[in-house]
Amino acid sequence: MPIDSENLALKGLDDLFSTEENRQEEQREQVQQIPIDELHPFTNHPFKVLDTLYRVSTKGQVEKDDIPMQKEACRNFAESQGWEIVKEFSEKGVSGFKKSAKERDELQKIQQAAMEGKFDILLVFMFDRLGRRDDETPFIVEWFTKQGIEVWSVNEGQQRFDTHVDKLMNYIRYWQASGESLKTSVRTRTRLEQLTGEGHYTGGTVPYGYKRVRLGRVNKKNQEVCDLVVDEAEAEIVRLIFHKYVYEGYGAQKLSHYLYEQGVVGRNNKNIPNTSIVRMIKNKGYTGYLINGAVETECPQLRIIEPELFEQAQELRQARTCERGGTSLGTSSKALLTGLVYCGHCGNRLSLTSSGRTHTYADGHCQKT
Fold first, then answer.
1. Which tens digit of pLDDT belongs to each residue from 272-313?
2. What percent of the chain has pLDDT over 70?
3. Which pLDDT does position 327 carry in this prediction?
4. C-alpha to C-alpha distance for 126 and 152, rounded to whole angstroms
5. Phi/psi at 179 (nearest 5 deg)?
6. Contact, 328 vs 320, CB < 8 A?
7. Which of 23-27, 158-162, 173-177, 299-303 has the highest mean pLDDT?
8. CATH classification (class only), 43-181
9. Does the model's pTM come out above 0.90?
């Protein structure tokens, strides 16, 4: 085959032989820009991705919103380490002492992501954000490390488990956190009892018959707080309940039906159930007391029921109570043998319950079912 000499080109010496400088350049590490969404996890990959957890436990922290402060600190720390945050988890109003890990949805999500290998590092503002239970939290932290997850705190660094000393320090940290939670709980309870002893309302569910109002009292932070006063409209219903119970022989269930027929409803615009009526009958606070645990303080301005009437109601309640939790003898029912026939298995009396619904018959009359 003839060769076209015009298209034949010879390579120069520089193309055939490389210099020592070129060979060293080829051995050096090269930097190449790759979009982050094109990177995929592989064994011993050099880039770091992490999840972050933020938690506040008290209502005051929720209202003040401490989480942005934790977020800013974690983001700045991650940036300084060259880490990429792939997911942030927040828990508001969740106690790391009172709630176990199984009851914390966000922590469960993080554990699931760890098992699926979705991140390398778990970062928190402080380690006690993971929990404050000395019998649980240290083992949760160790569990993460066994999944190949590094656990870091902005303020305390990395938690390691290389030696027995590391494990001991890990346990001591959460033992101290648990102790602090117990001390805080005791201090809070003691202060609330002191306020109750001084005749001040300290929060909680407002019993039927009262309402919260602002009377100018302020706390140590100079914030106005509420006090209890009698709600006269509801107080009349409370007096009616005690009168019917003591002087007319009404039981809690009969009272519930009677109030419903009279159009009296609770705060949720539904009928007042018999369980709520029983709580009213047992509530000593109606005689003019603020009660917080074992602390009782007399407050005459809160009296709705006279002490004598309250004591009569308690005597009747005790007399009507069955020995084994069955239906009281004072219960009236249209069902045959109600209160007279006993269960051969548990020993309780036969009782009749109602669904609370009303059925209208063909002749037009209505009856509860």
1. 998 999 999 999 999 999 988 888 899 999 999 999 999 999
2. 69
3. 47
4. 8
5. -60, -40
6. yes
7. 299-303
8. alpha beta
9. no
> Domain spans of the chain?
43-181, 325-369
Residue 228's pLDDT band, with cuts at 50, 70 and 90, is very high
